[in-house]
Each structure stands twice: as C-alpha cells, then as structure tokens.
Specification:
The complex is a heterodimer. By secondary structure, chain A is of the alpha/beta class. Chain A has helices at residues 17-32, 45-54, 75-80, 93-97, 122-126, 155-160, 200-204, 256-260, 309-312; strands at residues 3-4, 62-67, 107-112, 118-121, 132-139, 144-154, 170-175, 195-199, 209-214, 217-218, 228-230, 243-249, 284-287, 299-301. Chain A is globular. Mean pLDDT of chain A is 84; it is low at 8-24 and 31-53. Chain B contains eleven helices and no strands. By secondary structure, chain B is mostly helical. The chains are: A alpha/beta, B mainly alpha. The structure holds protoporphyrin IX containing FE. The site of protoporphyrin IX containing FE (HEM) has 21 residues of chain B, from helix 2, helix 3, helix 5 and helix 8.
C-alpha cells in the first residue's frame, strides 16, 4: 500500500529550530535503536535482544506535568515483567522472545470515519508532536501494578489531524502480527491479531497517550515498540502495543480479551476496586517496585479509575459501571 | 533403611532452603512474592503426589519398607501447604489479610486450595503411631481423604490460570495427569473384571433359567 504523508501541518504547528533539532534527534534515536541490527543470526539473538532492551535515549521536551507521588518501578522490572502474549504467556517471555522483532521501518494505517485516511510512515506521524514524560500508575487486571515514566504525547492530538467525522464514535486499534518474529502467535490463546478499542471521548481525553518510550529511552520490543497506547485509568490490557492500524468506527469495535472471555474482560475495563474479576479480587493490588526491594508491605488499596477519578469519572456519568465493566 | 530417613528429611527441606536463600539475596525477580507463592505451591503439590506414589512404587519394586517414607512425605506436603498459606497471608495480603475470607467465599480457586488445606489438618493430626493404633480401622477410612487433596490442588491451579492461557500453560494438566495415573493404578481392575465375569455369568444363567412362571 502507498505510504502517504499526513495532512498538512498547520502554521501553529510549525516549530522552532531548536525543537525541530530535538525531534530530529528523537527520530534518529528511534531509527537507530531497536534492532537496527536486523539480520543477526540465531546465535546473535540474545545480543540483539539486549540491544533492543537497552533502548536509545530520547529527547523529552516536557516533564513533570503528570507525575504520581509513588516511586517508579525500576527499569529492569518494567521491561522484564509484563504481558505481551505474542511473545509468550509468561511474564519474562516478552523480554526473552522479542529479540527478533523489527520495529523499524514502521507504518500505521489510519482508516474508517475520517477525512484523511491511508498508510503513514511512523516518522511522519510523530513529527508534529513534542514528546513529554508522564509518570503514570499501571494497573494490570491480574492485580499487580507498577509506576512507569512513559515518553509520548496525547493520542487526541494525533487523531485530530485526520479530522474524524461525526460518525466516528469509537477508535479501534490493531497490533502487528508477524508469526516469524512473534513466537506466541503459534498458540491460539487469543484471536490474533490483538485488538483494542476506546470510545472517542476516551481516546481524545488528555490523559490518553501514545508512547514511544519509557524511562527516557525508546520502547524495548517487549514493551510494545515502536508505538503503544497508554490509558492510565484502565487495566493494562487496554494499552495495545506495536500498533499498525487505527480506525475510526461508528460501532463499538471487537477487542481481543473481551472476545476471548466476555464475562471476565469488559470493553471499558476501567480500574474499579468494587467490581471483582470472577476469579480474583480487584480491591487491592501488589505494587511491583523491582528486585531487591522488600517482600513486605507491597499490597496497597486499588483506587477507583486507578486514582484518576477526578479527571475521568465524568466520562462515565450515569453509566452503571457494574454492567459496563 | 533407618539411615535413609535423615537424608530424605534434608532433601524435603531443600526447596524451602533454596527459596529462603533466593529471597534473602533478592534474586526472585521483579515479583518476588509471586515467586514465593508459586514455588511453595508447586512443592506442596509435588510432595502430595510423591506421597501417593509410595504405594504403587512399593508394589512395583517389591520393597515393602518404602512405606516408612510415606508419612514423612505427607507431613512435608502439609508443611509446604502451610508455608504457602503463610506466604499468602503474611507477605502477600499483609495488612489486608482479612481479604482471605472474601477470596475463599468468592474465588473458586481459593475455595479449592483452602478446602485442601482443611482436609490435610486431621490427616496430619492423626499421623502418629499412637493415633494409628487408637483409631484402628477408622484410621484407614479417615486417611482415604488424602485422595481428595491433590485433586483439589490441581483444581486450585487449573482455575487460577487466566482464560486463554490454558493452552500455553500446561503445568496443571501435567499435575492432573500424574494424579489420574496414580488413581487409575489404584482401581482394583482384577476384582472389577472378576465381578464383571460373575455378573455376566449371572445374567447368562438367568436367561437360561426358565422363568418362575414357565417352571410352574
Ligand atoms: C490454604 C489455602 C491456599 C491459598 C490461600 C492459596 C493461594 C495461592 C495463591 C494466591 C497462589 C498464586 C496465584 C497467582 O499467582 O495468581 C497460589 C498458587 C499455587 N498454589 Fe495455592 N493456595 C492454597 C492452597 C494450596 C494447596 C493445598 C496446594 C497444593 C495442593 C496449592 C498449590 C498451588 C500451586 C501448585 C500454585 C501455582 C504454582 C505455580 O504457578 O507454579 N495451594 N496459591
């Protein structure tokens, strides 16, 4: 498919030289980092994996606007303990099995109810957006949590450039599916490719971000390189990784976990201590800080909307959150 | 044979020692609490299955004295379940330990695990020679409960695995298959076959026999 340029950049988006230079550095970092070492043989796999894990440093234009007080999880834990079933279902599988994944070059298809659609190179998609660091809580539906400094920009800023029409009620996302690079795809654990979705007002909410990095460095493969979603008031599985398609839809899109087990994973998946998962309580969570930290005192109370109720509860005014879990 | 008990005792303690060693060195990975839960739970289940394997092994090898190890293995299984529960209550839930009751009531996998622990208590309490003598035949009947424990343990494990994860996470299946094999071995096949034969002979005889009415 033809790779298009995104819609014209408005004058308000024309950037100062210094900012521009910073962005060049960002793009260079993105291009250089994860697996520019493509083509390494099997023997070099673990090395390539390490190179990807290391992550190239990113230039961050803004910090400190969104920070939670809790201390961040350490880098090693955040990058070696997570779920990314395309690379295996154990928590350490993504870091172990993602060495062959190639997040460069990358393009994203924009489709559906918008004036501008087509396939766009990642660099062109990212160009107008200054990167900022946001330290968010990350609450997994499995009742563990982390605190992660993401590097990204508001999803809404990107979506607006494609001028969604009045029919665009939802946004659907799709993860790449490359069986050769993603060994987990061999198992029919989920109905691949992984899919997620948001209501358009959720997608446009300023807390919702697209991220290209964490801890000031580009995303390692196992964390969803080169582009992933972060919605801090929802369970972690909503944060779809390695996005290749974004579609504006009129109807609520199918999402992978909801399809696999509708009574366990809802479309909304807002963090809610009052609505239990059928097989475990959501009232509390185990905060993962990292190896070497104490064994005791890691359990904390889970907050409604993961602590972001003040900013997002109004999105769901009048909705029965037990029904729309 | 008596000499072999202390080494077996030490061997059974080894997993706990390694776990404690890893915990103090901070080498249990990013989620040490889950590691403690998983490793203690795994050893509880393995030791239960090992306990159930003693009798078949004794019959197969003809080494009757193997039965001496059965009690030690069973008690160690109980010990690991207790450690497992203590880890969950004191380390994982900590200040939120009352959540346990909620979990027992609401979560099938915790209900099964807790039921297994409850069943093990009377077995451990009556495991001494004295109790064995005192209870006599009733001791045997009581200790049949042991067969339910690994079954509940396997269910506990199978039910905690996340939906969709089942295919990729086969461990509960392997434990379940081992348990099934140990139980199938116990089915008195010969007696069943014998019973079937007499039953068949019985029905054959019945058809050959004239009905009471015809006889009259
Ligand atoms: C006394 C009540 C029990 C409680 C409260 C309990 C609790 C737990 C918890 C919280 C986990 C970890 C779940 C997770 O990470 O999602 C677990 C795992 C496990 N438990 Fe239990 N458990 C109990 C009894 C038992 C018993 C009796 C057995 C064995 C017969 C057992 C065997 C296991 C096994 C095999 C695992 C998983 C190990 C793995 O993932 O490698 N548990 N248990």
């Amino acid at each position: 498919m033809l790779i298009r340029r995104p819609p014209d950049i408005r004058s308000s988006e024309i950037t100062a030289e210094s900012v521009y230079r910073r962005r060049r550095a960002v793009l260079k970092a993105l291009a250089l980092s994860p697996l520019a070492l493509a083509g390494c043989g099997r023997g070099a796999e673990s090395q390539a994996g390490q190179a990807a894990n290391a992550g190239a440093p990113l230039e961050v234009a803004r910090r400190g606007a969104y920070v939670v007080g809790d201390p961040p999880t350490d880098y090693d834990a955040a990058t070696h303990y997570n779920n990314y079933y395309e690379f295996g279902t154990a928590k350490d599988d993504p870091a172990k099995n993602s060495g062959r994944f190639r997040p460069q070059p990358w393009s994203v298809e924009i489709a559906g109810e918008a004036e501008v659609t087509g396939r766009f190179a990642l660099e062109d998609l990212l160009r107008p957006h200054p990167l900022e660091e946001r330290v968010y809580r990350m609450r997994c539906v499995e009742a563990w949590s982390m605190v992660i400094p993401w590097v990204g920009f508001p999803l809404g800023d990107l979506l607006k450039r494609f001028r969604p029409t009045s029919k665009a009620k939802y946004v659907a996302f799709t993860t790449v599916a490359r069986p050769d690079e993603m060994p987990g795809l061999a198992y029919p654990v989920l109905d691949w490719p992984y899919r997620e979705g948001l209501r358009i007002d959720e997608a446009m909410h300023p807390l919702t971000i697209l991220t290209v990095g964490l801890f000031g460095r580009t995303l390692p493969n196992q964390n969803g390189a080169p582009l992933r979603l972060v919605v801090p008031w929802k369970y972690g599985f909503k944060g779809i990784k390695s996005i290749v398609r974004i579609a504006f839809t009129e109807r609520q899109p199918v999402t992978a976990w909801n399809r696999a087990a509708p009574d366990e994973y809802g479309f909304y998946a807002n963090v809610n201590p009052a609505v239990d998962h059928p097989r475990w309580s959501q009232a509390t969570e185990r905060r993962i800080t990292g190896a070497g930290f104490g064994l005791f005192g890691n359990r904390i109370a889970t907050l409604p909307f993961n602590g972001y109720a003040e900013q997002v509860a109004s999105l769901y005014a009048g909705m029965d959150l037990r029904r729309y879990y | 044979m008596a000499w072999s008990k202390p080494p077996l005792f030490a061997l059974c303690l080894l997993p706990l020692a390694l776990l404690a060693w890893d915990a103090t060195r901070g080498s249990l990975g990013p989620d040490p609490v889950a590691q403690l839960e998983h490793r203690s739970g795994d050893w509880a289940l393995r030791l239960l299955l090992a306990t159930l394997a003693v009798t078949p092994l004794r019959r197969l090898t003809g080494v009757a004295k193997l039965v001496r190890y059965r009690r030690m293995l069973g008690l160690f299984a109980f010990f690991y379940v207790c450690a497992h529960l203590a880890i969950y209550l004191l380390i994982d839930l900590g200040g939120y330990w009352t959540q346990l009751f909620d979990e027992i009531a609401k979560k099938p996998y915790i209900t099964a695990g807790f039921a297994a622990w409850l069943l093990l208590i009377p077995l451990a309490a009556t495991s001494t020679q004295r109790m064995m003598k005192r209870l006599g035949r009733r001791w045997q009947q009581l200790h049949r409960l042991v067969y339910a424990v690994p079954l509940l343990g396997v269910l506990h494990y199978a039910w905690m695995v996340k939906s969709g994860n089942v295919i990729a996470h086969r461990a509960p299946l392997y434990y379940g298959a081992s348990f099934a094999a140990l139980m199938l071995w116990r089915v008195p096949w010969a007696r069943l076959r014998g019973g079937l034969r007499t039953l068949r002979a019985g029905t054959a005889a019945a058809t050959r026999c004239p009905t009471p009415a015809a006889r009259r």
